[in-house]
Write a structure and sequence with these properties.
The chain has 318 residues and is α/β, with parallel strands linked by helices. It is built from 14 helices and 10 strands. It folds into 2 domains: 181 residues, 3-Layer(aba) Sandwich (Rossmann fold); 110 residues, Homeodomain-like (Arc Repressor Mutant, subunit A, Orthogonal Bundle), CATH 1.10.10. The strands form 3 sheets. Strands 2-1-5-6-10-9 form a 6-stranded mixed sheet, with helices on both faces. A two-stranded antiparallel ribbon has the order 3-4.
């Protein structure tokens, strides 16, 4: 868990940039009272950048934005396996990293990050269509093709566009706490969290009829965390067998049902620690963890800290 909250975000738009990949960090971190980040969208130089899908971008900032930023996002771009970004871009990324900025790549932006050498010896991912090419082109990178995102601390990578949302929410959760992350997720109408270890792409031969029903079950569970939630209870709510529910739930979230419930309870406790003055015992009861001792145990296992230390770091008054 991070104990400081950098708020300056640069989004580096390269030639052939994919519009959704550009828009995700620009919108998630957009400057507003409820989300205290400042965003600068930049290119290799100020001016026009030709993007993918028939769009172009007019940049108000050049690479000087990377000197200013605490977090630099590198959105995906077309044909990343054909040529590297300009040397000036790679040098600016390395320099930003050297000053302590985190670098976060969405989708094929991982190729630009790999070209800097900063991913050598580290785990990384990219869009499933390009994982083998990334591994072949940069053999020093430990490419994981079966995850949504990878957090290596100062360098982060994610899969296709939607997983860029998961990565952004993951960063906010670490910087600002779970209340801010949940607020951003509600604004985006996105899942509050998906496991970074969830598989990118699960191929099915027929159209999935259960996605909406499973989403409704998760929403129902979030409203009933103070109750006893078993696999059978959740499966009945979704009107499927426990075996089907368990298998499909892992496909949808990357967690088993009971792992997901425990994560939801810990996150609910985090939000109460941030926003209320309830005691640890009261919070434990409210989120279905029973006792303060049980809450402390799961907090330590999940976050590596105590509820009291977490409250001191992320309470409203900080």
């Amino acid at each position: 868990m991070r104990t400081h909250s950098p708020g300056r975000v640069a989004v580096l738009v390269l030639e052939g940039a994919k519009p959704l990949d550009v828009g995700i960090p620009a919108q998630v971190f957009s400057t507003r009272p409820s989300m205290p980040y400042e965003v600068r969208v930049c290119g290799a130089a100020a001016g026009l950048v030709t993007g993918g899908d028939g769009l172009s971008y007019h940049m108000a900032y050049g690479l000087d934005a990377l000197e200013w930023a605490d977090i630099v996002f590198i959105p995906g771009y077309r044909f990343p396996d054909r040529e590297q970004p300009p040397h000036a871009v790679l040098d600016a990324l390395v320099a930003a990293h050297g000053r302590g900025a985190r670098l976060a790549a969405i989708s094929t932006g991982a190729f630009a990050l790999a070209a800097t050498g900063l991913l050598d010896g580290r785990r990384a991912t990219t869009h499933w269509h390009y994982t083998r090419q990334l591994a072949a082109q940069y053999p020093q990178v430990r490419v994981d093709e079966d995850v949504l995102f990878v957090d290596e601390g100062d360098v982060l990578t994610s899969a296709g566009a939607a997983s860029g949302i998961d990565l952004c929410l993951h960063i906010i959760r670490g910087d600002r706490g779970v209340a801010a992350s949940n607020h951003a997720a509600r604004r985006l109408v996105a899942a509050p969290y998906r496991s970074g270890g969830q598989a990118q792409y699960v191929q099915r031969d027929i159209r999935d009829p259960l996605g909406e029903r499973f989403a409704e079950t998760r929403e129902w569970a979030l409203r009933h965390l103070d109750e006893r939630l078993t696999l059978g209870t959740l499966a009945r709510q979704a009107a499927v067998s426990p075996r089907t529910f368990s298998r499909r739930f892992v496909d949808d979230t990357g967690y088993t049902p009971l792992q997901w419930v425990m994560r939801a309870r810990v996150d609910a406790a985090r939000e109460l620690l941030e926003r209320s003055e309830l005691s640890v015992e009261q919070i434990a009861s409210n989120v279905g963890l029973g006792t303060g001792a049980n809450l402390r145990q799961h907090f330590q296992q999940t976050l590596g800290t105590t509820p009291s230390d977490y409250r001191r770091t992320f309470s409203k008054g900080q």
